[in-house]
Design brief:
alpha/beta; 8-stranded antiparallel β-sheet; 7-stranded antiparallel β-sheet; binds 2-deoxy-2-amino glucitol-6-phosphate
Length: 611
């Protein structure tokens, strides 16, 4: 949420900042802005505009109009104050000599604002961020770092900040608490970014700022300090993400590209873990003894990652016979969860930065649980704070609607369920082996599903005008429906809900009338007849039914449903992972027909770093 980029070096900063922002726009796209320091004239120029980054880039002719070789940029997801030019970042101090870009929320901004207003400081925006800029100026006496230090002792909440001052054209100050911030190292230059994709074109040498740390970026290098302003050495790591992976590569949308990349992503995720007929989990710290003594598993996540957890519950309970609870991260931290050292907490997050999930992780660790995370972004906060991390290795995911991260999370969690079952001896050897063989086939099976995309596009072309869609399924198909429904609503803006198929008649069936679209999910063979009965029920009330089932059930389903999509007949552990693909494609094609902004749906951001 909100993207920050910073550059200090020998080149003109504005084009570099705008290019970096274009890679961060998925984090927020309500407005954009830059502040550039010109060492020659001592001028700090701030330019910002509400709307997409293209508006600002157009006004600045790609940055060519703005001299100066140091600066910060921002793309905003509005929290405090509507999207407008005034509320855009950078926010500047009263004199115009200090500019601040911010990701996060300053929770005590109202009190600080009142304090400054009392001192006669005028405010020009509704943002919490302006308070930071004004407060730095209030404390500034020629030492920017000291002023920032005094501000940090007063502000509360979550923040990543990039700060520039006209008096100090040779430095950028960066601060982080609960919002991600990455430092990049180049020859005679230094970078700052919310996400590594923003600076990948310039450097692969990065370090991660920790909570409470402050960095001073100069052309000679980066100095870091801890919360007591003592110097700290930051380990520099090499990022191995491919630059092209964060580009559209000829596809019209990132979402479509990422859907199509899923077989490849699954190969990267699974192959190294399926060696020599065994499951190998890298540096796995959970001993067989811990697994045997584990009394309960909690899965904690948000959005689509939570839906992965829903599938995981069915699979883990069935395979391990241990109780599994799934909680929304935003609820977990406030519900006094019953967690102790015999509870394994699995947190799932693509970005590794979702604030609710990070807070839940901290709460779980505080309660003594072992926290295992499933994360895509290497070096992210959740990855670094977990006792154990398993990376999905899906590569950078840019579209707001998650696809390849979802399917790799799911594959990894299912694999983990089999691993635990192997350790616990809760499945017969033959079943264990069959599962491993099936996982090895998953990427190829997914390719077959993707080959059917034209058929799904055809169904989408017949359904895109619906104003409301219901998804229904049982067991893992219910969890799959939750994801299918979220995908559809987030990018096409069609109202949609998902129900356990047996639950529909306890209220929701009253909404079914002539022409209502119901997407019936019936891939889990054991419950196929039950879902069929529910299909008949909604058909009898006038619904049009688009079904998803396996090839072996196609004919049977086609006798009742209006249209049928299929996936190959695979091991039942893999059904949700394959089943999600037609639903992703369906949502994509519906949104395309409706002319929606698929990669940047309204009001959403890729990385949700506020509560
Ligand atoms: C899904 O398409 C979403 N955009 C969203 O629900 C997402 O899964 C959620 O915000 C969690 O993100 P995370 O996996 O990065 O923690």
């Amino acid at each position: 949420m909100c993207g920050i980029v910073g550059y200090i070096g020998q080149e003109q900063a504005a084009p570099i900042l705008l290019e970096g922002l274009s890679r961060l726009e998925y984090r927020g796209y309500d407005s954009a802005g830059v502040a550039v320091l010109d060492g020659q004239t001592g001028r700090l120029s701030v330019r910002k505009a509400s709307g997409r980054l293209a508006v600002l880039a157009g006004q600045l002719h790609g940055g060519a109009d703005l001299p100066g070789s140091a600066g910060v940029g921002h793309t905003r997801w509005a929290t405090h104050g509507a999207p407008s030019d005034e509320n855009s970042h950078p926010q500047v101090s009263r004199s115009g000599r200090i500019a601040v870009v911010h990701n996060g929320i300053i929770e005590n901004y109202a009190g600080l604002k009142a304090f400054l207003e009392d001192k006669g400081v005028p405010f020009t925006s509704e943002t919490d961020t302006e308070v930071v800029a004004q407060l730095i100026e209030y404390f500034y006496d020629g030492d920017l770092l000291a002023a920032v230090g005094r501000v940090l002792r007063r502000i509360q909440g979550a923040y990543a900040l990039g700060i520039v001052c006209a008096d100090c054209p040779g430095q950028i100050v960066a601060v982080r608490k609960d919002s991600p911030l990455i430092l990049g190292y180049g020859e005679g230059c230094a970078f700052l970014a919310s996400d590594v994709t923003a600076i990948l074109r310039h450097t692969r040498q990065v370090s991660y700022l920790e909570d409470g740390e402050v960095a001073v970026l100069t052309r000679q290098g980066i100095r870091c300090y801890d919360r007591l302003m003592q110097p700290v050495e930051k380990p520099v790591v090499q990022v191995d993400w491919d630059v092209d992976a964060a580009e559209k590569g000829g596809y019209e949308h990132f979402m479509f590209k990422e859907i199509m990349e899923q077989p490849q992503a699954l190969r990267r995720c699974l192959s190294p873990r399926l060696q020599g007929g065994e499951i190998t989990l890298e540096n796995f710290a959970l001993s067989g003894q811990y697994i045997r003594e584990m009394e309960k598993i909690y899965i904690v996540a948000c959005g689509s990652s939570y839906h992965v957890g829903m599938v995981g519950k069915y699979q883990l309970e069935r395979l391990t016979r241990r109780p599994v609870e799934v909680a929304l991260a935003s609820e977990f931290r406030y519900m006094q969860p019953i967690v102790d050292r015999r509870t394994l907490v699995i947190v799932i997050s693509q970005s590794g930065e979702t604030l609710d999930t990070l807070a839940a992780l901290r709460e779980a660790r505080r309660l003594g649980a072992f926290v295992l995370s499933i994360v895509n972004v290497v070096g992210s906060s959740i990855a670094r704070e977990s006792d154990q991390v398993l990376y999905t290795w899906a590569g950078p995911e840019i579209a707001v609607a998650t696809t390849k991260a979802y399917s790799t999370q799911l594959a990894l969690l299912s694999l983990l369920a089999v691993y635990f079952a192997g350790e616990l001896g809760t499945v017969p050897q033959a079943e264990y082996r069959a599962a491993l063989d099936a996982f090895a086939q998953l990427p190829d099976e997914m390719e077959k599903v993707l080959e059917r995309k034209d058929g799904i596009q055809y169904f989408a072309s017949r359904c895109f005008n619906h104003s409301s869609v219901f998804f229904m399924g049982r067991n893992v198909d219910y969890a799959l429906g939750l994801e299918g429904s979220l995908k559809l609503k987030e990018i096409s803006y069609i109202h949609s809900e998902a129900y356990a198929a047996g639950e529909l008649k306890h209220g929701t069936i009253s909404l079914i009338e002539d022409g209502t679209l119901v997407v019936a999910l019936a891939t889990y063979d054991r419950l196929f007849p039950k879902v069929m009965s529910n299909v008949v029920e909604v058909k009898s009330r006038g619904a049009g039914v688009l079904a998803l089932t396996t090839e072996r059930r196609r004919e049977e389903m086609a006798r009742t449903a209006d249209a049928v999509m299929t996936i190959p007949d695979v091991h039942d552990l893999l059904l949700p992972c394959l089943g999600v693909v037609p639903l992703q494609l369906f949502a994509y094609y519906v949104a395309l027909q409706r002319g929606c902004d698929i990669d940047k749906p309204r009001n959403l951001a890729k990385s949700v770093t506020v509560e």
